[in-house]
């Protein structure tokens, strides 16, 4: 569970809720007409921008903003180094059926065991990575679009409410409800965009970049194992995927663990 996403969204909702409760009755902020116009209208407009499959997948992908975990980079590097050592001792066939926590990596190891060339591995795994990027990007684009459309629908609701109010100036009983629609639709649009759609979209973009980076790490490792590179060389190659401070520490550990006179 991603606590940052959960705490951030719940914290914002609680603060807005407290402001509503402490200021006046919560019922004042509930307007079915405004909700129907902004929520329903925004969803239909966003649906028109994408295919139905992309639209449905986006809400399924939204779960990745709350619950999504890639392997730790350092742990993954350590795992790949051990797999490299194993393949050098027993051959590439030993990689078949190895228990790894990523279907992407498992597929690559199976290709190594099946004797695919380095060019075929790079081509096929690269295409798999691009397709994963496209699927993840679609979810982020849908929520980004929702973040853009919701305030606009709120403004449309405001204009509808103002027109209704001006058209019924001779009936004081109609002015209040029309003014409520005018103001609350703007509020609903702003809340949907800034408290739901945009944060989820940004988190999905972050997830997409994290997964793409990890998949590239795996591809580099698979090609190095195929090329029978020394496991220590492989480890040093993969440290570039670590943050700078952790990268320097990892490189020092590799140098310190190398036996005197041993070359890379």
Automatic annotation (TrEMBL):
Pfam families named in the record: MotA_ExbB
Keyword Transport tagged: yes
Bilayer-spanning residue ranges: 33-52, 145-167, 173-197
InterPro entries: Flag_MotA_CS, MotA-like, MotA_ExbB_proton_chnl
Domain MotA/TolQ/ExbB proton channel: 99-213
Membrane topology: Multi-pass membrane protein
UniProt record similarity statement: Belongs to the MotA family.
Protein name as annotated: MotA/TolQ/ExbB proton channel family protein
Organism of provenance: Halomonas llamarensis
